[in-house]
Amino acid sequence: MDDPRLTPARPDLAAKYLEGKVKAARFVTGEEFEIAEAIAPLRTGPSADAELATQALKGERITIYDRNHEGFAWGQLNGDGYVGWLPDRALEKPKGAPTHKITSLRTFAFPGPSIKLSPAETLPMGALVMVVREEGPFAVTREGWYLPRMHVDVLDEMAEDFVAVAERFVGTPYLWGGKSSFGIDCSGLLQVSLNAAGTGCPRDSDMQRDGLGRLLGLAEASHLQRGDLIFWSGHVAIVRDAETIVHANAHHMATVIENTRDAIARIKAAGSEVRAIKRLG
Hints:
It is a single chain. By secondary structure, this protein is mainly beta. The protein is built from five helices and 25 strands. The strands form eight sheets. Strands 20-25-21-22-23-24 form a six-stranded antiparallel sheet. The chain has a five-stranded antiparallel sheet with strand order 8-7-6-3-9, with no helix packed on it. Strands 13-10-17 form a three-stranded antiparallel sheet, with no helix packed on it.
């Protein structure tokens, strides 16, 4: 059965590219938009009370297949393929391809060339912008925002160590469906960190377990390396070294560094065994 999280199909409507593969009353081509807000909630239903499935960051592209009369649009993110509902106000027609990305945990977008001005927006790591020129210590975007140049970089510049990126999120509050330093979950932490290092990554931990790396045998799993991934049912942690992991978790309600053995024992006591250990590359 097709995963509904990744399949833009409902009984009444589905994406045109799924015609002949799924049943639906009608099929539509969809229209591409980009995310205009710094962080937009992608929810499981057309309501502000619906569960937060994931978040879309500024500059991401999404194909919209349906819009209701209550301010919500239904579509599929072009990056990781996630399907859901988000507010209409978060969308705008693309106005050119982004040139840069935010590389700091978050940064302020100033309305002019002074850090003493009140910020117009706060952008998270991974947000995409079009820089039209540089002016002193600022990169100026098409919106007229002045971003600190040290907080942005060109799209093809990648972090060398995705684990080091994850470590920068230590202390970030836990948020189910979150993928920014304002709030993040376990799989969001892995996705944002891998993306920063140039590696594509599915959104949810079960997709990551099935789609990333190779499964380690018992002998290899007893000698964990930096960058290995430990999966439980509904949870993932990133190995830092032979003794510690970094992960966003609801027990601490934060992203923390934790002793690996202690974490495994604690999670086992809560009723969940390690499901897989995988190694990238």
